[in-house]
Give the backbone structure.
Amino acid sequence: MLPDIVGYISLMGTNEDQAFDVLRWNREIQNRLIKRFNGTLIKEIGDRILASFSLDSEAVYSAIEIQKECQEQRNPLKIGIHEGEIFVVRKGSLSS
């Protein structure tokens, strides 16, 4: 799952303090709801986060709840959900 705050770059250009408040508020909502739906926060990337779920349905339900809370605060998000297996390759773990 990859949520993205709509208009965040523009907001940073016009009101940096407000942009950071929006970012903090979004992080709190996203972190709470990702945990509620058994997700794992992998990485924060600017105004985006990367989260992983064992089940596609958990990602979808989490995204729906995140969207609802953000809509109530008039803080729209775009959320992409990518499905497929994730492989983590550690140095030295592959043999030829």
Observations:
- The mean pLDDT is 86.
- Helices lie at 8-14, 16-36, 56-72.
